[in-house]
## 1
Amino acid sequence: MRNSRNILALALLATLLLAGCRQDMQDQPRFKPLAKSDFYSDLRSARAPVEGTVARGQLHEDTYLYTGKVGNSPGDYMPFAVTEDVLARGRERFNIYCAPCHSRLGDGNGMIVQRGFRRPPSYHTERLRKAPLGYFFDVMTNGFGAMPEYASQIPPRDRWNIVAYIRALQLSQDATSAEVPARQKVPSPPPAFRGDPGSGATLPELQPGNQTGNPEEPK
Ligand code: HEC
């Protein structure tokens, strides 16, 4: 009985002594975040990055791409060329992020508005038709009045894709017949089929699924 107690005490002592000898990485000399240090003259242990340091992925050299602004005012050009892919992507993103309020047509009569949200202005007004491209980018980036900002959800390139698509939407609602390329012209329907846009009148020349005038998803 006595003997086993001694052994136990010895084992305990050994454990304590050995534990005291540990020098693992967790024990190495270091500063806790933002701790004071007498080593530096400003007494801060955390050193400021060298002036001009840019974190990986944060080099926004092309300021126009990220702000849509030239100086303090919105610019009126795209930071990259508009291709069919750009417009297709813009349409897809627009229909996801903007159409719930602005509607697929951009007339401000989206489903959320029909359910009571504040009605945005139509894109097809003189003022917004003339608004520079960078203005739309800025509204998406920083929000506008009751409209939230979308910078955290839509990356800059996609915001520009949407800008290009909005301009195309505006054109689509404000073009003369002379501006439509010949191969895309729909022959005039017989008078019996003419109706108000959106009245549900079916034009025989239009394919099924494209009768509402709403842009379809790219296939
Ligand atoms: C939740 C609803 C909602 C969504 C989604 C939304 N908007 Fe808006 N938008 C509004 C409202 C409301 C206004 C009017 C705000 C006001 O006048 O206070 C507005 C205004 C605007 C304007 C006009 C600003 C002006 O000068 O009058 C533009 C351009 C615009 N939105 C673009 C977009 C784009 C692009 C998207 C998609 C990325 C988008 N909005 C998504 C609700 C929305």
## 2
Amino acid sequence: MSEHFFAPCPRGLESALAAELTRLGAAQVSPVESGVGFQGDWPLCYRVNLWSRLASRVLWRIAHGPYQSEEEVYRLARAVDWPSYFDVDQTFAVSTVARRCPLKSLNFVTLRIKDAVCDRFRDTRGRRPNVDTARPAVRLAAFLDATHLTLYLDTSGEALFKRGWRKSKGEAPLKENLAAGILHLTGWQPGVPLLDPMCGSGTFLMEAALMALHIAPGLGRGFAFERLENFDAQAWARLRREAEAECRPRQQLPLWGSDSDAAAVRHARRNFAEAGLAPVVALERKDVLELEAPAAEGVLVTNPPYGERIGDLATLAEFYPRLGSVLKQRFAGWRVFIFTADTRLPGLMRLKPARRTPLYNGPLACRLYEFPMVAGSHRRQR
Ligand SMILES: C[S@@+](CC[C@H](N)C(=O)[O-])C[C@H]1O[C@@H](n2cnc3c(N)ncnc32)[C@H](O)[C@@H]1O
């Protein structure tokens, strides 16, 4: 039976996610802002949770209908047979997102949906499930536009960018699905040399390693669908077995990471060790301004310090021109991608981007700049 799902993702990655979902077997794939709707059966939902590198979560559509008042929201939510979806002993939480919703208080809407779920349980089970807003077993997501309410059950639980390997964060790490999406946009393919010279906790390199070794990003974690009443344990066990069989043997890969901060390199090392992937990547403490290219050509992708988050604007204004010179002098033959919220960056580096792709890091508007470092570009740029 075909179910309706919605997978939110970082803004800017919608069409990449649509392509990924199609590859995974989804039907009726329709990208909208910040996510992609799709249809499929339950094994597909499990597969997307297990394999999607770009989705933030997978929401299962339970109810959809028009509303004009809080009372109509309550009635729509009350009409859902919640006890057929999850057990009364599971805790739950409701989160509400709205766009152009005419109702006054979203908190009140959330409260009415919670009441409706509890009342429905009381009707059929004689008691109600507890609410746990911090670590609920079951998450309900309500989406209201100007006229319609959609209710979803979250099949993922913890967001999918939490792959389960990150024990050590460091400063300002990228979300894993955003890093995977950026890698996708660079066109990098396993086997091509990849360098992140300001690697922090190593997110780009970790995502690249998982892709190269064909490791399903969700293999090391659990999912909320395992707690739903309709959970098909056999189908899930089969998908996991298949994913385990697809992992390629751990081996050294052409992946290099460095950072000038010893603690960042320690974080990255700990993360790779935790994922059982220490031997696949070369990590070292080094200032990017002293780095030599580790191969004749490849993809350099990085997310440098950003003024508002780390470091200070004046220091960065000195740093970027020097970075531009290093790239021109030592990275001829490489394709360089820089992900940043700082629009001064190409000007300060004195490099003209061949492409700039708008992306969001949470609410922060960013760009992925591509600078092809063709041999001789140094002279031309000057
Ligand atoms: C925004 S963080 C990168 C976060 C990383 N993408 C992650 O997901 O964890 C920027 C990193 O650049 C490093 N950095 C700053 N200046 C550097 C330099 N001159 N050479 C090498 N690394 C530098 C910082 O130590 C920091 O780890």
